[in-house]
Automatic annotation (TrEMBL):
Native source species: Candidatus Viridilinea mediisalina
Record-annotated STAS domain positions: 248-359
Segments passing through the bilayer: 27-45, 51-68, 75-93, 99-117, 124-142, 154-175
Coiled-coil spans in chain: 213-247
Database matches in InterPro entries: Bact_StressResp_Reg (IPR051932), STAS_dom (IPR002645), STAS_dom_sf (IPR036513)
Keywords tagged on the record: Coiled coil, Membrane, Transmembrane, Transmembrane helix
Record keyword Electron transport present: no
Record protein name field: STAS domain-containing protein
Amino acid sequence: MVNQQHLHKLFVMQHSDEDLQRRGQNLIVVLWAGIALSLLTLPLVWLEGRYVSVFNVLIALPLGLLLIQLTRRGWVDLVAIITVIVIIISLGVAPFVSATFLTSAYFFPLTTLVAGYTLGPRGILWTLLINMVTLGIVVWLLDNTPPEVPTVVATMIYVTALLIFGTIIAVLSAFTATRTITKIRAAREDARQASAALAYANAHLEEQVALRTADLSQALTAIERHAEELERQMATQQQLNELITQMALPLLPVQRDTLVVPLVGIFDHERIGLLEERVLQAVEQRGTRTLIFDITGVSCIDTHTGQAIMRCATALKLMGARTVLVGIRPEVAQTLVSLGIDLADLTTHVDLESALVLR
């Protein structure tokens, strides 16, 4: 696994530009292939006694390593141009050093393939132009060998056709790769912008949620405070109601076994029920024997009020207490008579003083 990682690092180039990284990695592969080819041919040229070629191979090794390092540092275009030019020069010099033109000429299209993988469309076209110029110079220099002239011309035509065809393929490939990388960049930029917009929306949404939560928390706190205030007000109101009730229906102990209940105002169903409840409870708790209803402050008695007084008198009689009614005004007496209320269970007096004296 470790060896595979080290081997992988030999052919990898890291760069932020995808196109430059792609071409740089292709160029590194081409350079390593050239170094490997040089090492493989080194024994052969040594055995054949071509010491000049041996010297060239030994120079190519450190040059290739240097170009690989330059490529990894981002000098992809420069290294690719140097590589293509070196290959073209080597192929152009070969017919005059160690090979025939027929052998080396058919290797010229390889330069367009190398340019197609390592350069852009313009670099490929420049490679074609340099190849054509180099082939022209080589053919012109080889023009002094008449037996090979027809073969050289034919080879020149075939190689030119291969160069043009290879250049077209390489240019189309380069344009396709460039267009694809451009689309990938645009898609990546769109994705980045969408991600940034989504992140901003999420952050803004979180901020809105936080603000809304804070507002709701404040509103809830205000509602709780208002509810507590209402509870306090209701408790106070209840206390006031009880106080008012006690003041509206006072039970006044005038003697040890005598209670006076002064009645004031108008009695509705609620006050009548409260009157009956308080009177009966007070008589039971105090052991009262005489209960005096003072109706001096009552200007009008209706049927319900009269019947309530009579119910109290009947209940008190059952409890062993006597009911006395004092302070009856003439109009109230007429009302009681007209309503047909039976006052047989009641003892009546003119006022409270006479009731207490004659008790």
